[in-house]
Every structure is written in C-alpha cells, then in structure tokens.
UniProtKB/TrEMBL annotation:
Organism: Clavelina lepadiformis
Chemical reaction(s) catalysed: RX + glutathione = an S-substituted glutathione + a halide anion + H(+)
InterPro entries for this protein: Glutathione-S-Trfase_C-like, Glutathione-S-Trfase_C_sf, Glutathione_S-Trfase, Glutathione_S-Trfase_N, GST_C, GST_C_Theta, GST_N_Theta, GST_Theta
Taxonomy of the source species: Eukaryota, Metazoa, Chordata, Tunicata, Ascidiacea
Compartments where located: Cytoplasm
Family classification: Belongs to the GST superfamily. Theta family.
Domain of life of the organism encoding this protein: Eukaryota
GST N-terminal domain: residues covered: 1-82
Keywords: Cytoplasm
Protein name: Glutathione transferase
SUPFAM superfamilies, alphabetized: GST C-terminal domain-like, Thioredoxin-like
Amino acid sequence: MSIKLYIDMLSQPCRALVIFMKTCKVPFEAVQVAIRKGENRKEPFLKLNPLGKLPVMVDGQFVLTESVAIFRYICRKFSVPENIYPSSLEGQAKVDEYLEWQHMNTRYKAATVFIGELFGRGNVDVDKAVSDMNQMMDDLEMMFLKNQEFINGDQVSFADILAACEIVQPMFSGRKVFDDRPRIKSWFERVRRETQPHFDEAHSIFYQGRERFLRKNKL
C-alpha cells in the first residue's frame, strides 16, 4: 500500500514534501485538499487532522501531521540520498538545525509578508513584516549559507528545499525578494536546478495564481 499525502500545492510545506518525495523516488498518492475552498475544515479530512492543517501523511493505519515529522518518518522508512538527509550524526544535526530554526523564521516571516500583501494591511503591519523578513534573510545568509553553496555544504538537502519553498511565497504579490541579495539568489537557483523538474512542477499552481493576482492588481 502506497503512502497517501494530503496536500494543497499553494502550501509551502506541501510543495517541499512533494519535491522531496519525487526527488527521492518515494512512491506516494497525492490527495488534493483545497484550503481556499475550506476543504481542510470539513469531514472527512478533520478525522485525519482535527486541527485542519496540511500536510497529512497516511501510511496504512498510521496518520502523521507536520511536514518535518513526515520528512523524518519517510527518511527512516525509505532509503533516501545521502545529501538529502545524511546518515552521519553531524550531517543530520546540521540539517535539523535549520529545520528547527525555520519555523519561527523563514516560514513565519516570509508567510507574514505574503498574508499582509495578499489580504491587506488591515490584517498585518506590512512594513514591520517586510523589515522582519529582511532580517531573516540576513540571518539565513550569515548563519546557514555563509560561503557554502547549500545549507549543509556543497549538496542540496531537504533544508534547502523547504527554505526555497518558503522564500518563494512572498513573491506571489510581485515582491522582488532577491533584490540586493546575489548570494541568496544564486543559492535559490541552485536549489531549483538540483530539484528539477519537480520544483517547477510543484510550483505550477502557485505560478498560475501569481500571474492572475498580478494581472488583477495590474502589478
């Protein structure tokens, strides 16, 4: 029985998991749950995750939520490339270091800008959100990229995939997140290149939505 992955491809961690699993050739069945239609707040999905959050993984009778937990479960059950999640204690720890940091940094701060610019300034102080995101980008470059090509050295890992999917999110509104950031831009393009064609396939719905948003708002 193949793993089922309940996802919405407008969700950053959902996209990251799909890219990861396709890159690692892990067999799975994608089950689409449209957040914009409120499908995540209805039965039968709430039986899987009463919190109504995506992604959700179902492996037989075993149900697991939270993208990082799902990632680690897949790595323990299947053989994945060494660069994606190293077998060494030190290598895993460096990937995990970023995965623990990103929740309240890359994910939270990029998503806050996305929410503010998509749904209006009444919901978010956009100026502060952009300032916080810029600080996060400084920290990402200084702490995790330094003078290396990827977060864990010279090869792409799941940390890079997850980070790239988060940084794409504020680009939905037309924001140029790579302005004056050549190192992060080069890193992003390397991650995208190393995970093709899966990266662009996973972002196809996001790209389409972005184009519609920009046309509607004449940006």
